[in-house]
Each structure stands twice: as C-alpha cells, then as structure tokens.
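Table S2 (continued). Query chain:
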Amino acid sequence: MIASRFLPLLLVSVTLAAAQTVPASDAAKHIGQHATVCGSIAGEHTAASARGTPTFINLDQPYPHQVFTVLVWGDARDSVGDLPTTGRLCVTGVITQYRGVPEIVLRNRQDWHVPK
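Corresponding output:
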C-alpha cells in the first residue's frame, strides 16, 4: 500500500533526472540546461603549454567554426578516460558558453559515450 503511494513520485523523479538529448548544432539553444549533446568529432587539440592543459574536442565543425566544444582539463584526463578521436561522441552535463560557443566540461568517464 505504501509502495503504491510512492511509485508515481519515484517515476517522476527518474524522468526528471534523465538528460535531454540534443544535436551539437542545437546546443546553443540549451545553455544552462543539463543535457546530452551528440555530434561528429571534427577536431581535437590539447593546449599542452596552456594553464590547466585543456583538451578541446569540437563536434560537427572544426575550430574556428566549431558549433560545440567538449572540454577536458588536464587534471581530469585520467578520470575521463580515453576519448575517441573520430566518429560520433555524446557528452552529458550542463551546457555552458565560452566566447559564444556552447560547451560541456567533462569530469569523469560516466559523462560520455559513443552512440550505437
């Protein structure tokens, strides 16, 4: 009896926790939202001499015309794991914006996958 009273609440909570999936080209419309962004890897660059040693992975369009960037800081690289350098990639997190380009900062392996 008690379980049946909480089942609707549990289902609503699970539904709200699921991230919305958007193409990289539409990510700019979702700034501030938690979502999964998917696109084709168009370029990758690690700024080895920059503070924090960031790695930038651009989806759908290469730099300087990128439509979405995946950012991995050097100190998170081990936690994130080996990302693919070609093909499609999906990343999950809060979409932010840096210099007019939407991005997600990856912090661990659970926040990315290669779609089937």
